[in-house]
Write a structure and sequence with these properties.
The structure is a single chain. Helices cover about 35% and strands about 20% of the residues. It is built from twelve helices and 18 strands. A six-stranded parallel sheet has the order 2-1-3-4-5-8, with helices on both faces. A six-stranded parallel sheet has the order 11-10-9-12-13-16, with helices on both faces. The longest helix is centred in the N-terminal third of the chain and has 18 residues, at about 55-70. It starts with a strand and ends with a helix. The mean pLDDT is about 95.
Length: about 400
């Protein structure tokens, strides 16, 4: 049995938090192979998960067990599994595996390549987009003699997607004035393109009896954040004083069951996402599992589950989209999104086109039955392809 030390934000309400918990669930599925230890990371200003269920109790107990083990002497671990951005990778054991969401742009930072090559034995990412960017990024390096040479990823990079987790939806009471509503789920930040998603929605539906439910926060799920986020939304909507369409802010922590209840609510008819890029796109994935028609771009991590393999009469297999596409351009990342050591100034990501997005909103409203059929077909494929035990087995 191998002693595995997992380092990651296991208790946080973030994408990396869910990634850490997926890794731990996978390792727990094979107690014959792994003894699991856990070093919990704080992740920015994010909140902690609050469910007091068996998994949460196990996480807390494992963190305590690890502290006692480390404080008891010189700990020996066989493998480290580090769930974080590559800037924070370190040698912790004879075998070191980096498990990262990767990047939503077209390049990884040079320091990521260096950390992976010098410290890690293998990299696991959550989408084919992330893997391809790691593999295809080439930077110019210089040796001690001043000779320049191309520097790229030297360690193996493998993909393990997230699994479908069976979840009974909780019933939600939503006070929505209209029967046809779109839903948008994301944190309010530069990458998510949330201002344009809301602004263009209002402009397209200014005289329509439809609604948009915006499940978002700016930093945390606390009352102060709610007031701040509400003011941001009010400022964004202020120019549209005579609009007929409705915009509802949904703020605060919601359990997985409550999120499924949101996606399956009788008045929620479609999911929208025009972010510049996704490492995987968990909200999109969860919406697809709920058979909710999706409007988004055909770029970045979500492509792993929004395209279904279809075999034609000649036996050739092609991937067919099962969502309503928004056109986009791949252009340089805007200056305000640059992040030293993470999002490179010379990298690019997608910029959804305003006209295409507005037309997609109209198509969804007018031909909802067509895209509902698409969503049902997509859900059927995802439930089989991304089945929980398959993903756990692939990861372990």
């Amino acid at each position: 049995m191998k002693k595995v030390i997992v380092k990651g934000p296991a208790l946080s309400q973030t994408g990396y938090g869910e990634q850490t918990r997926f890794a731990l669930r996978s390792l727990r599925s094979r107690p014959d192979l792994f003894e699991v230890f856990l070093l919990n990371l704080e992740w920015g200003k994010s909140n902690h998960i609050i469910e007091d269920d068996e998994e949460h109790q196990w996480l807390v107990e494992t963190i305590r067990k690890t502290a006692h083990y480390i404080n008891g002497g010189q700990p020996q671990f066989d493998i480290s599994l580090q769930v974080t951005i590559p800037n924070e990778f370190e040698k912790m054991a004879p075998v070191n595996i980096g498990y990262t969401a990767g990047i939503e742009t077209t390049k990884v930072a040079p320091v990521w390549l260096q950390k992976c090559n010098e410290l890690m034995d293998r990299i696991i990412v959550i989408s084919n987009h992330s893997r391809d960017v790691f593999i295809n990024t080439v930077v110019e390096a210089q040796d001690q003699n001043g000779n320049k040479f191309p520097y790229k990823m030297e360690k193996p990079v493998e993909v393990v997607n997230y699994p479908v987790r069976p979840q009974s939806p909780a019933k939600l009471e939503l006070d929505l004035p209209y029967d046809f509503n779109y839903v948008l789920v994301s944190q309010w930040g530069p990458r998510k393109n949330i201002e344009n998603a809301i602004r263009w929605f209002v402009e397209e539906n200014i005289d329509q009896e439809v609604g948009l439910v915006v499940k978002t926060n700016s930093f945390k799920n606390c009352n102060i954040d709610r007031v701040f986020t509400h003011k941001r939304l009010q400022a964004l909507l202020a120019p549209y004083k005579d609009r007929k369409c409705n915009v509802t802010l949904l703020h605060g922590y919601m359990s997985e069951a409550e999120m499924q209840g949101l996606y399956r609510h009788e008045k929620i008819k479609a999911f929208i996402n025009i972010a510049h890029g996704e490492g995987f796109g968990l909200p999109l994935f969860d919406a697809a599992i709920a058979k909710l028609p999706i409007i988004t771009i055909g770029w970045s991590g979500q492509c792993d589950f929004l395209y279904v393999p279809v075999t034609d009469k000649k036996g050739k297999t092609k991937r067919k989209s099962k969502f309503l596409k928004v056109d986009y351009d791949v252009l340089p990342v805007q200056k305000e999104a640059h992040w030293e050591g993470v999002i490179q100034p010379d990298s690019q990501w997608a910029f959804p086109k305003e006209g295409s997005y507005k037309m997609a909103l109209r198509k969804m409203r007018n031909e909802h039955h067509v895209y509902l059929g698409m969503a049902k077909s997509l859900e059927k494929w995802i439930v089989d392809e991304f089945e929980e035990s398959k993903m756990y087995s692939k990861f372990t």
